[in-house]
Structures are given as structure tokens and as C-alpha cells.
Amino acid sequence: MIFDCDGTLIDSQNVIYSGLEHAFRQEGIPVPDRRTALSIVGLSLEVAIAELVGEAHLGRVPHMADTYRNFQLGLRAEGVVDPLYPGAREALDALSAREDVLLGVATGKALRGVVHMEESHGLVGRFVTRQTADRAPSKPHPAMIFQAMEETGVEPSRTVMIGDTSFDMEMAKNAGVASIGVTWGYHDEARLRAAGAGQVIGHFDALESTISGLFGWNREAA
User: Fold this and answer.
1) Active-site residue, selected from the candidate residues 4, 82, 164, 168
2) DSSP alpha helices (H): ranges in the chain?
């Protein structure tokens, strides 16, 4: 089971938007509205910023990305922690308890962002594979899923991507694996389905039964 992070496991929208505001203002570029800015969450940082600034300011993207990263590091140093979504911990606990399940993440974050999430929420060691923006092309390229399957030895037919954006659903489709879209993040159900989501859920409570339906789990034998 491969999870996205921002918008799927953790609610990071306030911190992300604050960082983008800071990066844009430092460059004197008009700040995009909140909805537009957050619509790119899930892409690798430079790709996301490039989407927002357009061709006229592409040359500023590397510096803006560095400004954003330094802003985020400052917040972490101050003890700011993005909360888990309701039900996330319980879902991870239930899935981790199964001997036939391996958990991973595939995210637009850098590895240090994933480590911070794990350490902040007591999730160290929970994910056996961590695919991040600093070791793979940006979503929706399928490299993150391919690398996760290679590291774990899991076949595509036994792999599912769980995420909140069209980028996650497109990545899953490009990798030839199942996908579950979640509606509590950054893209709505219509966009998730248009991107190829196999299933869409509105709360973590529905996750285990949805996965069970995909893979034919026998709950009593779990």
C-alpha cells in the first residue's frame, strides 16, 4: 500500500500556502489565490512552482524553491507540525498489523520532510519504502511506484496507490497499479475520477474495506 503524504496522511495546507506566499513575496511576484496555489500540491517543488509562475518567471523558480524550503525548515525548527488527518493513525495501525501488507509512501516531499513527519507522529519504521521528490521524477511519472515495487518485491497486481490528487491517480495509471482517491485533500472527487481513480473514499474509516474489496482479503484470517 503506497500512500501520498500531503493531503492524504497529513493536513499541511496552511504551512504549504504560507511557504508559497513567502516565496512569491520575496520575488515580488503576485501571490496566487489559495485554491490555485494548493491545486499543485503533490508535484515536486520546482515543478509545482513553475506551474504557478508561468513562463515569464521560470528563471526564478530555483531561487523560489530554495526560499520555500528554508521557510519550511524554519517552521520545523520552531516546532510546527502538520497534523495527521482524522483516522490516519488508526488506518496505518490496522494495515501494519497485517502480515500480508507492506506500507510505503510516494510524495512530492523531500526525504527530510518524510523523516520529519515520521518522527513527529511516531511513525518511524512504519514505511518499508519511501519514495520522495529528491530521488525520482515528479508525479505523475511512474518512477516512484516502480521503485517502491522493486524495493519490496511486490507485483503491480498487489499494489495500490492511495492519494488525494489527480497526480497520484495518473501516476498509478501510468505504473499499471490500482488506485484509491481520497476526497479530504486537494482535489475533488470529479477530478480524481477523471484522472483514473479506481475507487474514491471520503474518510479513512472506509479504507480497509475498500482495499479488502480490491484484493479479496479474508478478514477473519487476517
Assistant:
1) 4
2) 13-27, 34-38, 45-53, 61-77, 88-96, 111-120, 143-152, 166-175, 189-194, 207-215
Per residue in 92-130, pLDDT (tens digit) is: 999 999 999 999 999 999 999 999 999 999 999 999 999
6, 82, 164, 168: the catalytic one is 6
- Of 29, 31, 52, 30, the closest CA to residue 41 belongs to 52
Residue with cell 501510468: 174
Query: Residue 25, CB half-sphere, CA atoms under 13 Å: how many?
Result: 8
Rg of the chain taking only CA atoms, in angstroms = 17
Q: 3 CB contacts (<8 Å, ≥6 apart)?
A: 9, 103, 104, 105, 106, 127, 162, 163
pTM over 0.90: yes
Q: How far apart are CA 98 and CA 100, in angstroms?
A: 5
3-state secondary structure of 42: coil
| Residue 4 designated active-site | yes
